[in-house]
Amino acid sequence: MFAWFSEFRHKMFADRPLTRMEAIMPNVCADFEAELIELNSENNHMHLLVNYPPKVAVTRLVNSLKGVPSHRLRQEFPDLVRHYYRANKLWSGSYFTGPVGSTPLSVVKQDMQQQNRPG
C-alpha cells in the first residue's frame, strides 16, 4: 500500500485531473510488471494498493507513480501550474508504504473505497 500528499497538502484536483491520473496509474504499474489493485484519489492525496514483484525497487516504482502523472497533468491541464510549488513539484517528497500482511485484500480495498472523494 502506498500513500502520498500534494505539496503542502494543497487541495488542487477536480474530477477531470483525478480521472486522468487514475487512468495513467495502471500503465505506470504495467511498466514495472506490477498490478494496480485499488486506487483512491482525493483532491490532495492518493492511496494505492499495488502488487509488485520483489525485483522492483519500491522507490523507483513510487517515483514513477508520482512523476509520470505529474508530468502528464502539467501538459494536459496547464491551469494546475498555480499549484506546483518549489521547482514545479506537484507532490510532497515524502510517501508512505506499508505491507498489507495477512489482512484480506477485500478488507483493504473496502477501507480504501470508503475514503471520501471530492465532488
Outline the fold blueprint.
Layout: E1 2-5, H1 15-31, E2 35-41, E3 45-51, H2 58-76, E4 96-97, H3 105-113
Antiparallel strand pairs: 1-3, 1-4, 2-3
Helix pairs in contact: 1-2
Q: Which fold name is given in CATH as the topology?
A: Alpha-Beta Plaits
Query: What low-confidence regions span 5 or more consecutive residues with pLDDT below 50?
Result: none
- H and E string: EHEEHEH
Silhouette? globular
β-strand number: 4
Question: What's the N-to-C terminus distance?
Answer: 24 Å
Architecture (CATH level 2) name:
2-Layer Sandwich
Q: What share of residues are in beta strands?
A: 15-25%
The CATH C-level name is Alpha Beta
What structural class should be given to the helix and strand makeup? alpha+beta
Q: Helical segment tally?
A: 3
Which strand order does the major sheet show? 2-3-1-4
Number of domains: 1
Largest β sheet strand count, sense and barrel closure: 4 strands, antiparallel
Describe what you observe in this structure.
The chain has 119 residues and is α+β, with helices and mostly antiparallel strands. It has a single domain, classed as Transposase IS200-like (Alpha-Beta Plaits, 2-Layer Sandwich), CATH 3.30.70. Helices cover 38% and strands 17% of the residues. It is built from 3 helices and 4 strands; from the N terminus they run E-H-E-E-H-E-H. Strands 2-3-1-4 form a 4-stranded antiparallel sheet, with helices on both faces. Helix 1 (15-31) packs antiparallel against helix 2. The longest helix is centred in the middle third of the chain and has 19 residues, at 58-76. InterPro entries: Transposase_17 (IPR002686), Transposase_17_sf (IPR036515). Residues 5-115 form the Transposase IS200-like domain. It holds the Pfam family Y1_Tnp.
